[in-house]
Specification:
It is built from 19 helices and eight strands. The chain is an alpha+beta fold and 473 residues long. The chain has three domains: 5-119, Gyrase A, domain 2 (2-Layer Sandwich); 134-285, no CATH class; 299-464, no CATH class. The strands form three sheets. Strands 1-2-4-3 form a four-stranded antiparallel beta sheet. A hairpin with a 3-residue loop joins β1 (22-27) and β2 (31-36). α10 packs across α12, α11 (224-243) packs across α12 and α17 packs across α18 (390-411). It is globular, with a radius of gyration of 24 Å.
């Protein structure tokens, strides 16, 4: 169901307390993320009932409205336009925020209390890590799709005059991904982004091949995104140390110089070597896990991924995926984890079939199912399976079965990977890569999806639908 973004934004705004209550607006692939001065002013019941709203998630520091892919981008833009426009003679933008100072001050206490209650050190660290890598996902997806198309053309011997250009388009971003990681890391942790990017650029600079560290000659890209992350973190620490000690008259000269020099030398003579060892270990461990314990590893990874998504802990896997893609050209973990979405789709289809008289729930499923088929499972999680309880567990069973299927073939030597992170479900087909031909990759991944659909549907149909179901909260 396609929604009018302007109408939806205009309906959402008063239900979250009005313009004066909105401190910040952002979005991810599926959620509108609102920072609110006073979360108690939200009319949750009315907000959930809005057409196009698939669920609500209250996280530390933000109020999240699940809208689904595509729609969330349009609604966010419309909401930002509404917040920037004058209302009833009020001044736009920052001036209106000043008029809301009293409300914001009162809300600060509530927000800080919520943050202390919910923001564990682990969740805070993962959230900040996600803020570094999530902005890179659109480029990874775009370049990954181009790389997949280019691979098909090369294998088929078609358009030889075009494939070198497609290869350049697909590879340019990956060659410099360390720089973007450095920029985002410094920005997230309070440093100057360009200094973080400058230090991280050392990781991919061809001239590092002239250096030998611990008896080993460095190679451009050694350490990859992990090395860039560590380098930018160190640069941020050095910069902050300098800011508090260098005289103001010399700050513009000395602080950037010392930041680049100290963090740069540490990157060359330590961080690149250490991060390279960790990156190699990650690649070796991922391949060993699937080739040695394939079905069991797939069962565990596919079965636990939905709870990880629900808790936000899946964010810890983002740098691992990025490392594998940079190191091997694809991540073997993502197709296994994508099976969790297949189990979710199967479970929700069973709920749709069993609960024929629950019109509201069936409408939610119809709205969220296209996103679920494309691998965006949050609308189905928060709108259907999690509120009902048991379907969430049977969806995990479907994901475990699909993961075991893909893992079984990995153990036989047929590795299926993805050239980008973000998409799953049907959207992952253009991004498939591995050590076999396209036909084999397609068959294995499709078999995993069908297994996840079937087991998720059957388990939910037989055991997952409550005797007296309640509509989603």
């Amino acid at each position: 169901m396609r929604i009018d973004p302007t109408v939806t934004a205009a309906a959402v705004l008063p239900l979250v307390g009005g313009p004066a209550n909105v401190v910040s607006v952002a979005h991810c692939m599926t959620r509108l993320r609102l920072g609110l001065a006073d979360p108690s002013r939200v009319d949750e019941e009315a907000l959930r009932s809005l057409p196009g709203v698939l669920g609500l998630v209250v996280d530390a520091g933000s109020y999240q409205v699940v809208l689904g892919p595509g729609a969330v981008t349009r609604v966010t833009s419309a909401l930002e336009a509404l917040l920037a426009a004058p209302t009833d003679g009020e001044p736009p933008g920052a001036a209106r925020g000043e008029l809301a100072g009293e409300l914001a001050a009162r809300g600060d206490l509530l927000r800080e209390e919520r943050r202390r209650r919910n923001a564990t050190p682990l969740k805070s660290a993962l959230r900040r890590l996600a803020n570094v890598f999530v902005p890179l996902i659109p480029a990874l997806i775009g370049c990954g799709v181009v790389a997949g198309v280019n691979g098909l053309l090369v294998n088929a011997g078609l358009l030889p005059w075009l494939t070198p250009a497609l290869s350049a388009v697909a590879s340019g971003f990956m060659a410099l991904i360390a720089v973007f990681v450095g920029l985002n890391t410094a920005k997230e942790f309070g440093g100057t982004p360009v200094l973080g990017g400058a230090v991280a650029a050392i990781v991919v600079y061809p001239g590092v091949a002239k250096l030998t560290v611990f008896g080993v000659t460095l190679s451009p890209g050694q350490g990859g995104v992990l090395g860039a992350l560590a380098a930018a973190l160190l640069a941020t620490r050095v910069e902050k140390w300098c800011r508090g000690r260098v005289p103001d008259a010399l700050d513009v000269l000395l602080t950037p110089t010392l930041t680049v020099l100290v963090a740069g030398l540490a990157t060359l003579y330590g961080l690149m070597w250490a991060a390279g060892a960790v990156s190699t270990a990650i690649g070796t461990a991922a391949n060993w896990l699937l080739t040695t314990t394939g079905p069991f590893a797939g069962l565990v990874l596919g079965g636990l991924f939905l709870p990880l998504v629900m808790l936000g802990l899946h964010q810890a896997l983002i740098p691992i995926h990025a490392t594998l893609i940079e190191q091997q050209g694809y991540t073997v973990l993502l197709p296994v984890l994508a099976m969790a979405g297949a189990g979710q789709v199967g479970a929700c289809l069973a709920v749709y079939v069993r609960l024929r008289h629950d019109t509201s729930l069936r409408t939610t499923i119809r709205s969220a199912l296209p996103a679920g088929l494309l691998g965006v499972g949050e609308p189905l999680i928060y709108g259907v399976s999690l509120p009902l309880g048991r379907p969430f567990l049977t969806a995990c069973a479907g994901g475990a079965a699909g993961g075991a299927f893909v893992g079984f073939f990995a153990m036989l030597g047929d590795r299926v990977g993805a050239t980008a992170i973000g998409p799953s479900g049907w959207a992952l087909f253009p991004l498939l890569a591995g050590n076999r031909g396209w036909g084999s990759l397609l068959a294995i991944y499709s078999g995993g999806l069908l297994t996840g659909y079937a087991v998720g549907f059957t388990a939910t149909y037989l055991f997952g639908v409550p005797d007296r179901p309640r509509p989603p909260a």
